[in-house]
Amino acid sequence: MTAAAPQAKARRSSMARRGILFVLPAVVLLLAIYIIPMIVLAIFSVTDYQLGALSTKFVGLRNFQKAFSDPVFLRAMANTVLYAVIVIPVGVFLALGIALLVYNRKRSRAFWEVAYFLPVTATLVAMATVFQFLLHPSLGPVNAAIKWMGFEPVGFLSNPSLLIPTMAIIGIWQVLGFNMVLFLAGLTAIPKDLHEAIRLDGARNPIDRFLNVTWPMLGPTTMFVIVTTSISAFKVFETVAVLTKGRSGSEVLLFALYLEGFEYSNTGYAAALTLIFLIIVLILSIGQTLHMDRKVHY
Q1: How far apart are CA 243 and CA 23, in angstroms?
Q2: Distance between CA 225 and CA 88 in Å, rounded?
Q3: Residue range 110-154, pLDDT digits in tens
Q4: CA 96 to chain CA mean position, Å
Q5: Which of 63, 115, 161, 163 would be 272's cystine partner, CB 3.0–4.6 Å?
């Protein structure tokens, strides 16, 4: 017993060192990619540092106070919330409807999966340029169809009140295919026996079978889709940068951060805005997960 104890201790020590060596690359990457940048961001957010400046000073919470009195930032936040309110419900439930239709296809299912998933693989900057042509007031086919029906052309990209809804439609088009594929995976994972059992119990109506079997069993998938769609909605940037370049009526949070940090070189203020943005997304994601997790059947 006494002789075996040092050997066991040495063996445990050797295993611990090996474990540390295995974990070390992940820890280094975590520090380099997430922890250290967040610490630097937090430090910049309480200073008046400007890109290229040789000196800076501590300003405390002044950048955060400035943000909540800045009309541009407040307008960007309101526009982002409006964009998310349109994109999240439509992007989730429209994708669910399409997934239900595609799932029941036999021969053409693969075609529809590829067709709806193509927007996910497309570069959004390039597709925003395509939408710029499609929505052009005089050259675009959308307004050509509107004029053919006898109505006046619509300034989708020139009317400030239509800018956010127009970009939201593009955002829905972008997330639709990815959400559909996730719902298809969830539908495939539902045991067919459950549908047969509820059919034998008298639920012959497809709506009854959807509400009693399909929808509850899609709970985990729906939760994941809603959270990821919400994050994508709050991260809208490319369509604004290409279609409107952030002109009045189309300001969103990420574009406001970009302007402050890279166009105006207000690094300290941009860092504060970035922290506010991250906190909003974090609270939204955690809140949605905690709220929906209680209603999900695993």
Answers
A1: 45
A2: 9
A3: 888 888 887 777 777 777 778 888 888 888 888 888 888 888 888
A4: 17
A5: 63
